[in-house]
């Protein structure tokens, strides 16, 4: 059982997208069963830093507090993860009671202020790979296609991807020099290609995956799978998509329109 | 030809469904949302969505769904709109299935169904324990497709802060503020659909997401739209208390076999099963919540002497639990450290859902022409108590009504807002800029977050599970004191960029307005009905209170009036879950 007097935080701050970053420390009175979000909530109720100076409260994003909306991602002690499910007692157990918990914004996305970032890039990638089932319309026209429970069992976990960006942060091949769309969007292609209606249009998605920035940019470093808070088996899905794109390439070759 | 434009505020299930219906008809939509729509609160819904698909050999019918909903709502819901909803439900679920929702399957590959509270037949389709997430994502994907096709413009990270209403009292758009840059901008449109969800934050801690402040609904109310049935707040029986929020343990935990108990005389006491033999652990939420409150607060029999009882799944096989309830097991494990497959979970009732909301007609238009409301922020489908798994349905369904209704309304318009209302929009922007500038300078001694916490505690203590008139009257006095104290708040953040405190201060002011509507609505209603329970008035009183509460904003607080409820299909009868519900088919045609 940990029972320190304070939770000691060190936050990488920035007052706007163009301002220079700086570090600031806080000491928040310890309570059991806190998480990083509830510590930040304490700071805004009493925004005073560790030196006892009045400062602007730390800005960050959160919403569901149940690890399902994907909003609250940050680097906690250097690891990309959801701050709402980062329990302080566990962090102190893991890193030692006197450890300073460091919070930084993700580095693969533009910072807006403090820990708040702009992940529009990820939504744009979903557009690129056409991550949807192209139904005729939303109207009621009777029962949908059957889906084997067996398929549901592996496809359902992919549908829980909350676009949090942990995998993008961890992937060495997602960086300012590459156009790699990242593992999350690739996994989504597998999901839509598995749906009976989605499968009718699978080539339109595969076409995107073989373009620049597509699946070939993955170097199989496997970092992504380790950090996914939804335990999505990203490397398995990447491998499966590799096979699908190979098949696609071969079909295109046979049809001679390459 | 210019077809006009619709502005949808909120991208939860209701807002996205309305958007889909409009954009599909090639009329452009602007969506304004606090968060990227994919992160809307709808993602939190775990258990499932109701439709009488009758694929389980239970002989379920649409009529049963209708009667369960009306009876569960203690006859306060207008019956004709409810009938429309339950009739549309199967078609809606099948459409969502076509859009790729990963619903859980039977061996035959059909949609699996589970049991939910207040119901005898299996009627709840689900996607593991993350049904809301999957439904929202499917809507999000379809809307993204329509966005790529050029029919939808998204403004994510914007908060609606005012409406644009012209001299004829017609809604012509809204004004919103960017949460990053703080820019204030007008959005001119021919119809506005408010789909901004619930307001759990008024109670401080609830099962809701932190953006669910009800601020937008309060703005609508303060612009002259009546707020209805605010006093009906659903308390979910099984919440898990945390330092930052009360997380929900879904009703599906009981639907799939979970049992509620505490110790009495040293032995496990399954008090729901004992008290309500016909429904057992699956009595509706208001009844279960009150029983737990009674056991803990009145009888002092909570576990470890605290306000908590057990919700027990540990007698069920782990692989069954993983498959059907994986999502919620994870939440309990991740946030509380214990493994619910091995030890019973500790739970206590928590504020969960707003049955009441913005008053609309049956086409979801408010009394302001051109202004619509849909989803949890409206008041339409759940009466005095909502049945589990009915609100994902009402959110989607109300979107399918509001969207087409807005289209129809626009067709009948003489002139489009674009030609007429630009300068009007500029005036509202100017007004809001002044308010914003004043806000940023507030330098009193009240911290807005602490003030909010105090308000939440007061509301939870006096206006939640059990209500007494004396405490309600005192609460209203206190709330007015809070409103005074609000004038002395301090915007603790000096940064002009992404200033969350300024936005929160605005929301807090609006929350206070609604808190009074809830409290006074409860004070006025001297009866017990659905979620609204007064020990001093333990019975339902149809003669006096089979009526919709209508609160009208005035500078001196809400003014109340009442409207008749549509009971044209099912005759009101006593709601009693100790015995099996009898369907009165004769009286209902
Ligand atoms: C934990 C939990 C579990 C639940 N489980 C179930 C279940 O199993 N079955 C069921 O049927 N129901 C369930 N519900 C209820 C159901 O989830 C909600 O009622 C429903 O999702 C509401 O959808 P909505 O579209 O009305 O609003 P929301 O999904 O809340 O969306 C509101 C939208 O409005 C936006 N917004 C709000 N204010 C503003 C503003 N001022 N300016 C701009 N945008 C704004 C937000 O950004 C968001 O996009 C559950 C609820 C909770 C809390
Ligand atoms: S496996 Fe591929 S996608 Fe995942 S981290 Fe490695 S390079 Fe990136
Ligand atoms: S795949 Fe996992 S880590 Fe990546 S965005 Fe989705 S949920 Fe987050
Ligand atoms: S707040 Fe939603 S994932 Fe953390």
Itemize the secondary structure elements and their pairings:
The complex is a heterodimer of chains A (258) and B (589).
Chain A: E1 6-13, E2 22-29, H1 36-45, E3 73-76, E4 79-82, H2 88-95, E5 101-104, E6 111-113, E7 116-117, H3 120-128, H4 149-158, H5 166-170, H6 183-194, H7 202-209, H8 223-227, H9 234-255
Parallel strand pairs in A: 1-5
Antiparallel strand pairs in A: 1-2, 3-4, 3-5, 6-7
Helix pairs in contact in A: 4-6, 6-7, 6-9, 7-9
Chain B: E1 6-9, H1 13-23, E2 29-33, E3 49-50, H2 62-72, H3 79-98, E4 113-114, E5 124-125, H4 131-148, E6 152-156, E7 158-165, E8 171-178, E9 184-188, E10 191-194, H5 215-222, E11 227-228, E12 233-241, E13 246-248, H6 252-255, E14 259-264, E15 267-269, H7 271-275, H8 285-298, E16 309-312, H9 318-336, E17 345-354, E18 357-358, E19 371-373, H10 391-411, H11 417-420, H12 422-440, H13 448-462, H14 469-486, H15 500-524, H16 542-545, E20 547-552, E21 559-564
Parallel strand pairs in B: 1-2, 1-10, 2-6, 10-19
Antiparallel strand pairs in B: 3-5, 4-5, 7-8, 8-9, 11-18, 11-20, 12-13, 12-17, 14-15, 14-16, 16-17, 20-21
CATH architectural designation of the largest domain in chain B: 3-Layer(bba) Sandwich
Bound molecules: flavin-adenine dinucleotide, iron/sulfur cluster, FE2/S2 (inorganic) cluster
CATH topology category name of the largest domain in chain B: FAD/NAD(P)-binding domain
Low-confidence stretches of chain A: none
Largest interface: A-B, 70 and 75 residues
- How many distinct helices of chain B? 16
CATH class of the largest domain in chain B: Alpha Beta
Features:
heterodimer, A: alpha+beta, Fumarate Reductase Iron-sulfur Protein, Chain B, domain 2, 2 domains, B: 589 residues, alpha+beta, FAD/NAD(P)-binding domain, six-stranded antiparallel β-sheet, five-stranded parallel β-sheet, 16 helices, binds flavin-adenine dinucleotide, binds iron/sulfur cluster, binds FE2/S2 (inorganic) cluster
What does this structure look like?
Chain A contains nine helices and seven strands; from the N terminus they run E-E-H-E-E-H-E-E-E-H-H-H-H-H-H-H. Chain A is an alpha+beta fold. In chain A, helix 6 packs antiparallel against helix 7 (202-209), helix 6 (183-194) crosses helix 9 and helix 7 packs across helix 9 (234-255). The mean pLDDT of chain A is 95. With 589 residues, chain B is α+β, with helices and mostly antiparallel strands. Helices cover 37% and strands 17% of the residues of chain B. Chain B contains 16 helices and 21 strands. Chain B has helices at residues 13-23, 62-72, 79-98, 131-148, 215-222, 252-255, 271-275, 285-298, 318-336, 391-411, 417-420, 422-440, 448-462, 469-486, 500-524, 542-545, and strands at residues 6-9, 29-33, 49-50, 113-114, 124-125, 152-156, 158-165, 171-178, 184-188, 191-194, 227-228, 233-241, 246-248, 259-264, 267-269, 309-312, 345-354, 357-358, 371-373, 547-552, 559-564. The model of chain B is unreliable at 585-589 (pLDDT under 50). The interface between A and B is large, with 70 and 75 residues. The complex binds flavin-adenine dinucleotide, iron/sulfur cluster (SF4) (2 copies) and FE2/S2 (inorganic) cluster. FE2/S2 (inorganic) cluster binds at residues 62-65, 67-72, 82, 84 of chain A.
